[in-house]
């Protein structure tokens, strides 16, 4: 069965068939707009969803020491996980793009890269 059965639009008083999810094309737009009004920053919500915390925790468990300090022979417990290529520049949250950092290294790197998103990630 490639197609879901068509249902009527869930918008009150609308008798058209739903094209996507539960609304007709017109009302889907209305509902999308309404939904977006509650999301102050949909882009960043998508970037730092609930799954980020899990990715971060898992990464820090696998890399418990600050990777920058380690390069200098220092052993500092990592406190934060840094995106090497910032998400705002098209990076992702795969392990290859992550770095365990202590607070000091993280703020230094964030300042150097001029990442305006600097939300502590
Ligand atoms: Zn409708
Ligand atoms: Zn460090």
Q: Measured on Cα atoms, how large is the radius of gyration?
A: 22 Å
Residue share in β-strands: 5-15%
What would the principal axes of the Cα set say about the shape?
Answer: elongated
Q: Structural class, from helix and strand content?
A: mainly alpha
With strands numbered from the N-terminus, the spatial order across the biggest sheet is 1-2
Order of SSEs: HHHHEEH
Continuous helix count: 5
Bound molecules: zinc ion
Number of strands: 2
As a percent range, the share of helical residues equals 40-55%
Biggest sheet character: 2 strands, antiparallel
Low-confidence regions:
none
Our measurement of the CA-to-CA distance between the termini, rounded to an integer number of angstroms, reads 44 Å
Give a verbal description of the structure.
The chain is mainly alpha-helical and 121 residues long. The protein has five helices and two strands; from the N terminus they run H-H-H-H-E-E-H. The protein has helices at residues 25-38, 42-47, 50-62, 67-71, 103-113, and strands at 80-83, 98-101. It has a two-stranded antiparallel ribbon. The radius of gyration is 22 Å and the shape is elongated. The chain starts with 24 loop residues before the first helix and ends in an 8-residue tail after the last helix. 12% of the residues are buried. Bound molecules: zinc ion (2 copies).
Compact overview of the structure:
The protein is mainly alpha-helical and 121 residues long. The chain has 5 helices and 2 strands, in the order H-H-H-H-E-E-H.
């Amino acid at each position: 069965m490639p197609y879901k059965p068509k249902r009527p639009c869930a918008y009150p008083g609308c008798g058209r068939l739903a094209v996507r999810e539960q609304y007709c094309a017109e009302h889907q737009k209305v509902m999308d707009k309404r939904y977006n009004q509650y999301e102050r920053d949909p882009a960043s919500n998508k970037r730092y969803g609930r799954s980020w915390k899990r990715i971060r925790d898992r990464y820090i468990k696998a890399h418990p020491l600050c990777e920058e300090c380690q390069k200098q022979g220092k052993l500092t417990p990592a406190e934060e996980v840094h995106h090497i290529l910032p998400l705002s520049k098209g990076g992702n949250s795969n392990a290859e793009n992550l770095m365990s950092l202590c607070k000091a290294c993280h703020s230094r790197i964030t300042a150097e890269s001029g990442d305006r998103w600097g939300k502590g990630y």
